[in-house]
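Worked example

This section walks through a single chain of length 223. The input is the sequence exactly as stored; nothing has been trimmed or padded.
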Amino acid sequence: MKIHLLLAGVAIATVGAAGIASAAVTVADASFENPSVPGGYEYGVQVGAQNSSNGIDAAATGVVFGAGSGVQANGSAWGFASAPSGVQTAFLQSYDNYTPGQIAQDVSGLVAGKSYDVSFYIADRPGFGVNPVTVSFGGVALGTFTPASTSFSEVTSGSFVATASTGVITFSTGLNGGDADIGLDNVSISAVPEPATWAMMLVGFGGMGVAMRSRRKQAVAAI
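Given that input, the structure is written out below as tokens.
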């Protein structure tokens, strides 16, 4: 009877974990593979010295590339490290007195009232100034992050609470007197487990351990 109850706890933990895993959230063009610019780059808005390699403004469904931002491919003149996901990354530039970079992405699949974290990869542009990026959701800043090196590394922002099933995540940089650039890739949003869910999972896993020890004792006694 005791083992059955413990196994029931394990089942609860499994269901809880499955619930967390199934809470998938979609970020539009999360790895910035659109538009496709093999070996080149496109600014969202071309202004002055900020010109696309092909003379076309960057555009992707569910994404708005502002002035000073866009998409670049592995091996382009931007010189960023290879994309951690796919073959392209986004870039945000802060250049002299031009409008600093900003990228907005549509988000869907949220559950109102639930908390979420934002994760993404960032890297410095080799040979150029450091360019911190601020991530916001629904107009509320979740943190400002500075790349650790020219290699892409993952960072996770502070949490936000969804108020609807959809929203907009924004990445932006500030003004800079020189030329400072940051690469951005592989944006994801995941649900933060609620305390009750963690409690159920801990009880379930604890029950699994007790059940295994009980079975071992029974096997020894039988021998």
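What to look for: Residues 2-22, 196-205 have pLDDT under 50 and may be disordered.
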